[in-house]
Specification:
184 residues, mainly beta, Immunoglobulin-like, 2 domains, seven-stranded mixed beta sheet, 18 strands, 0% helix, glycoprotein, disulfide bond, signal, Ig-like_fold
Length: 184
């Protein structure tokens, strides 16, 4: 059985020119190697460490944007591909939003939790990121919050948000400070 391969950005979000991020490839594997592909081309290969490989992007330019994926090659299990991850490099021209978790960052399972992303810009929509997940949650500009009505252990982790406006072109904010949600 081929293992499930995850790919995600750490920290998540759109990167500014000159900024840095790490593309993480991970799987429930003991050994093997990951090859990073960009737009279908092979870039780098790394041996697994603790079931993952980390590929750094530093001093990002427009050349770093594109669609990335990881190819896992293991001893006995053969090979497996991750999903595709789009990396965006954009100037930040909006103010940095502030993330709040209500009622707090330490909650019991089953509790009601609200993630509020506040930005001083009336036209901005925002994305809520959970580190380790490829998907983000869209928060429309009419709302500024996202609710989980019954929080589970699987919802815990490191959250951040990032906002944008879309008129003729996209304009982005920096990523908010990240907050850790603990579910007991």
């Amino acid at each position: 059985d081929a293992p499930t391969i995850s790919i995600f950005l750490k920290p998540p979000g759109v990167i500014p020119p000159g900024g840095s991020t790490t593309i993480c490839c991970s799987c429930q594997c003991d050994n093997g190697k990951f090859t990073l592909h960009k737009d279908g081309n092979q870039l780098h290969t790394l041996e697994l460490r603790d079931g993952r490989a980390e590929f750094s992007i530093s001093n990002a330019t427009q050349n770093d944007r594109g669609v990335y994926s990881c190819l896992y090659q293991g001893g006995d299990t053969g090979s497996a591909h991750s999903r595709h991850l789009e990396v965006k490099v954009q100037e930040f021209s909006l103010p940095r939003p502030v993330l709040a978790i209500l009622p707090g960052q330490d909650v019991t399972a089953g509790a009601y939790v609200m993630f509020r992303c506040t930005i001083t810009h009336s036209e901005a929509g925002c994305f809520l990121y959970l580190e380790g997940q490829i998907e983000s949650t869209f928060i429309p500009k009419e709302e500024d919050y996202f609710n989980i009505s019954r929080v589970l252990k699987g919802d815990e982790g490191r959250y951040s948000c990032q906002c944008f406006t879309r008129n003729d072109t996209f304009k982005w904010s920096a990523v908010s400070q990240s907050l850790d949600l603990v579910v007991r």
